[in-house]
Each structure stands twice: as C-alpha cells, then as structure tokens.
Write a structure and sequence with these properties.
alpha/beta, Rossmann fold, 6-stranded mixed β-sheet, globular, 6 strands
C-alpha cells in the first residue's frame, strides 16, 4: 500500500486537497466567494453533499465579508465553533468572536426561564448591535430564538450561518431562518456542525 501514498509537502497539502475537490466536482462551479465556501466545507468534512445542500441567500457571502471588513462580531453557540474561527484574522479587521455558553449567568438565566442556554446566548449576541454574524453549528434552539428576535424587530443580523447538526428540530429551524429577509448561509437537512459553522466563517475571512 505504501507505493500508493502520494508524497506531498506539508505546506502543499491543502492546495492538493482543493485540487482534488475541484476535480471531483466534475466541472461544477459557483461564483466566488460561494465556491470557496463550498470547497472549504467539503475539505473540512470530506462530504460532497455540501455541494448540493449549501443554500445562500442573495449575496449572503459578500454581505458577510463586508460585515467582517467593518469589524463584525461573530457569535457562536459552541466553544468548538468559537475555537475554530481564525480570531487573529478576524481581529485584523477590528472584529471579535464570542461564545457565551459557559458564562455562569447564562446558565442561571436559562434555568430560571426554562429555556436553553443557546437561546440566551442569542439574546446576548443581539445586544452587540447590528453588525453581528451568528454562526450556529449545534443548537436548533439558537436558530429558533434568532427567528423570534427577527420577527419581533429586535435584531437585524449581518448574516446568519445556520448549520446545526442532528435530528430534533434541526431541519425545521433552518427552514425558519430561510423564511426571513436576513442574509443566510444554511446547509439544508440534518448535516452541519460546529466545524462547518467555523469553516464558513474562515472561508469568508480567507477570501478577504
């Protein structure tokens, strides 16, 4: 089997991976920056389903990049997504990534109100203003709360990355976000995850 191993320099591995992905897409392309996002999601997951399930509202990726250039906050629903975002690159544009999930007062308030910590975290993110990108990779309740806040006129996010993964209310919560007038990037169906949410953020950062 060793004779089948490709010798690739460490610095060339990502470049070679992208070449393989592009080749296996068999000529399918998207306008950039959407194409970069599709390829990075496939690169992160080794799952070509993202070529079919990623949905972009009109100019969503470009609007997200414009928000980043203006110093956007990125709010995640997991520490894993927060950890995966290139915070140094984000900071170079004056932005900051936030995850409120482990804050003690968030847990306390969620218990008192009988809701999830993720829902409370979305309210904390809403308090940061309008230039906020919400990157959701785990909790459908985060998307549901964002939908409610949008309907109530309490937030107008720059972009929602709606990529929770799983089985309970995942599909339905994504569809709620796609019904709004807010820019969104959503992998339809059950697939997603914190790694995908962070990957989409980084794909936009690296395009700048």
């Amino acid at each position: 089997m060793l004779d089948k191993i490709q010798i690739v320099k460490p610095e060339d591995i990502e470049k070679r991976s992208m070449e393989i992905i592009t080749s296996e897409l068999n000529g399918r392309t998207w306008p950039d920056p959407e194409f970069a996002i599709v390829k990075r999601c496939i690169h992160t997951s080794a799952d070509f389903d993202y070529a079919d399930n990623l949905c972009f509202s009109e100019n969503a990726a470009k609007l997200g990049m414009e928000a980043i250039k203006k110093g956007a906050h990125i709010v995640t629903d997991t520490r894993m997504a927060w950890s995966g975002i290139n915070k140094k690159k984000l900071a170079s544009f004056g932005g900051e990534a936030h995850c409120f999930m482990s804050d003690e007062d968030v847990a306390k308030e969620a218990k008192e109100r009988g809701c999830t910590r993720a829902a409370i975290c979305m309210e904390r993110g809403a308090a940061l203003g309008d230039n906020v990108i919400f990157a959701i990779g785990n909790a459908p309740t985060a998307l549901i709360r964002l939908y409610e806040l949008i309907q109530e006129g309490k937030i107008n996010p720059a972009l929602i990355i709606g990529a929770p993964v799983g089985f309970v209310n995942v599909v339905e919560s994504k569809e709620l976000i796609m019904e709004t007038a807010v820019p969104y990037i959503v992998p339809k169906g059950r697939k997603g995850g914190s790694n995908i949410a962070a990957t989409i953020c980084n794909a936009m950062l690296y395009q700048l």
